[in-house]
Amino acid sequence: MNEIKFRKIIREDLADVFLLLNQLKEKDINTIDSETAWKNFKSNSSSNSIVCIYNDRVVAYGSIVIENKIRGDIAGHVEDIVVDDSMRGKMVGVKLINKLINIGSEKGCYRITLFCEEKLINFYERTGFKVNNIMMKKFL
Amino acid sequence: MNEIKFRKIIREDLADVFLLLNQLKEKDINTIDSETAWKNFKSNSSSNSIVCIYNDRVVAYGSIVIENKIRGDIAGHVEDIVVDDSMRGKMVGVKLINKLINIGSEKGCYRITLFCEEKLINFYERTGFKVNNIMMKKFL
Which of A114, B13, B78, B81 could make a disulfide contact with B62, Cβ separation 3.0–4.6 Å? Predict the structure, then answer.
């Protein structure tokens, strides 16, 4: 059986990750300036993203944003979790979240938060998250 | 009448902000290493915090974390909103949120998110936020 591996995202993963993220939220890939997107992503040291590789293919993506709070605490925010449809049932999602939790732990986070739809509560509870509050959003 | 002013946080605000944040979430201020907290806060360019000044006193604090997403989008997360109890009813909270929204807008955010308790939904709706999803949390 082929192994599922996780590693930090590299520039060469971008095209695959763009396709994958379209399963989460559609965006016209032709409108993305990959060079600028990559440069800006790398320039923001608080964004940490990993990919999951299976059969030499990127099959999952996730990110954790690290926040340095004014009183010295460090908080993590899990963002943009997506697992390829073909990989359901292989525990890829749980492993991905655990990898991001590990990154948060290494960075010294005292807590990690995430937003999700109600139907995903059970999934995130499997990695130790608990429903805490309301998430509100404003588009600019 | 004295004017309410907003500006970026400076090192000299720290003691006041620590006291203010204790109205939100208690933390033993003596345990905070201000020098390290300030250095780490400043080193993370994605954290932007402002204070509200009234009668030469820091009476409100809020932060917006800027996230560079892998597809080039920029997202903002509003964090740690606190208004001094003595300032209730002066629209300080709404003005503070609007200042943070402006910062997000200047930074190119396409959307801003925040977590809050159910009782604060009405307040945030006044600045254009809408209930969107569930927030989950895990302590490390």
Answer: B81
Q: Which two tokens stand for residue B30?
A: 């003596």
Neighbours of A41 (CB within 10 A): 20
3-class SS of residue A106: helix
Residue A46 to residue B76: CA distance in whole angstroms: 13
Pick the closest to residue A47 from B97, B71, B49, B138 (CA basis): B71
From CA A47, how far away is CA B66, in angstroms rounded? 10
Q: Cα A5 from chain centroid?
A: 15
CATH number of the domain at A5-125, out of 2.40.160.60, 3.30.200.20, 3.40.50.300, 3.40.630.30?
Answer: 3.40.630.30
Question: Given the structure tokens 């396709």, which residue do they identify?
Answer: A19
Out of B44, B69, B133, closest to residue A135 by CB: B133
Whether B40 and B76 have beta carbons less than 8 Å apart is answered as no
Residues whose CB falls within 8 Å of the CB of residue A55, separated by 6 or more in sequence, listed in order? A2
- Mind listing the pLDDT tens digit of every residue in chain A (140 residues)? 578 999 999 999 999 999 999 999 999 999 999 999 999 999 988 889 999 999 999 999 999 999 999 999 999 999 999 999 999 888 999 999 999 999 999 999 999 999 999 999 999 999 999 999 999 999 99
Q: Where are the domains of chain B?
A: 5-125
Give the closest-approach CA distance of A55 to chain B in angstroms: 23
How many angstroms separate the CA atoms of A34 and B117, rounded?
Answer: 38
Look up the pTM and report it.
0.94
Angle at which helix A14-21 crosses helix A34-43, to 10 degrees, equals 90
Query: Which of A71, A113, A117, A133 would you mutate first to test chain B, the one with the most B CBs within 10 A?
Result: A71
Q: How far apart are CA A90 and CA B8, in angstroms?
A: 47
* β-bridge pairing A74-83 and A57-68: antiparallel
